[in-house]
Amino acid sequence: MPIPRSSRRSFLGLAALAPLAAAGLSACGTSGPAGSSGGKSGAGTASMWALSGQPNEDIQKNSVAAFNKLGKGTMNVTFFQNDAYKTKIRTAVGAGQAPTMIYGWGGGILKSYADADQVEDLTSWLKDNADFKDKFLDATWGSATFDGKIFAIPCNNTQPIVMYYNKTQFEKAGADLPKSWDDVMNLVDVFNGKGVAPFSLGGQSKWTSMMWLEYLLDRIGGPEVFNAIFANKSDAWSDDAVIQTGQRVQELVKAKGFIKGFSSIAADSNADQALLYTGKAAMMLHGGWAYGGMKSAQPDFVKNHLAFSNFPTIAGGKGDPKNTVGNPANYWSISAKASEDEKKVAKAYLTDGLFTDKDIDAYIASGGLPVVKAAQSKLAGSDNPEFLQFIYELSSQAPNFQQSWDQALSPTQADALLNNVDQLFLLQITPEKFASNMNATLGK
């Protein structure tokens, strides 16, 4: 099944943590000279740290084991649980003791590494290896690119945010799936009149509410608005598109668009997904990973009663309706502090060990969409062909794939963002106050 939401989150709030001794954090397993991969150390040795947890852990182990048999060096992989990894990697990078290959989420944390010259600038190397660069979905590069320079290689699956629908509830209401924001607001009245919540929302988790802002801002103002925020331009949050976004959100809340008590529902327990597949809610905005969760819990619902689409259009909006938001990919960076021999092995792994046919098949079998173009031809034979084809088209055809804001921004900004998003949805602050509060975080 897709990577859990907890595995793909940014390093939120970790800036405040005190550095921990490396010995105090235990790994979940290794593969390399001391493990079972059987590498040839004469060609050089490099290290990588990755996340534990299935199915990705086994896929990564098998990928490293296959590479180590090629005679192009030995890759030594160590696995950590999600929270332990986030703490350890920040400590290690800050101390100049990172592994050769650094696993991450791109965005604000990667940019901080790049600004501190802690990760390798891969721009020239990728230019010399254009065929390798071209194998990836074009939309995945944005979260690894800063000032025109690329600092990481996409890996794992792509997971855009999706609109999910309970077809049974739509059939009972005699309603069509929404294509525009006006349709959405009309459906709010329709489903409330039927005693069904229009939208499920795990608002206690806050990042679920944030997804609404991400799409609305893109549809209203286009990607340029958030690009200015990301660039820390003065008063960037005061753009009229941000204010309109807040107004639309609060209009939806006031119209009882979300299930009653949404602020006490936690997404991490998949309670919001259950509201959709049990028919208590008709619609849900959620990540691509929710498909796997619902399939595991209610396979019949997913097979016979689930529909999905991109986010609806907004009349007069500047954003391309094909744009998407979410998680373009996970990423591998190369430590700038690694030796030349270690960097050579790392680059060999990237070109010859990452996303082999066997890897691609394994990701697809797990219910995910690997971030390479070669995956498309394999989707028809998968267990989830319709959904994965939809995700492929959504990701590959998007003129802009906006990374989730809490990953794109710095930890300080992301913390403030989630708190202010929560207050916005609870009608405790106005859109103007939301913008003012967020302007105060710019550059932090």
UniProtKB/TrEMBL annotation:
UniProt keyword annotation of Signal present: yes
UniProt keyword Signal present: yes
Keyword vocabulary terms for this entry: Signal
Signal sequence, start to end: 1-27
SUPFAM superfamilies on file: Periplasmic binding protein-like II
Matching InterPro entries: Bact_solute-bd_prot1 (IPR050490), SBP (IPR006059), TAT_signal (IPR006311)
Lineage: Bacteria, Bacillati, Actinomycetota, Actinomycetes, Propionibacteriales
Designated name of the protein: Raffinose/stachyose/melibiose transport system substrate-binding protein
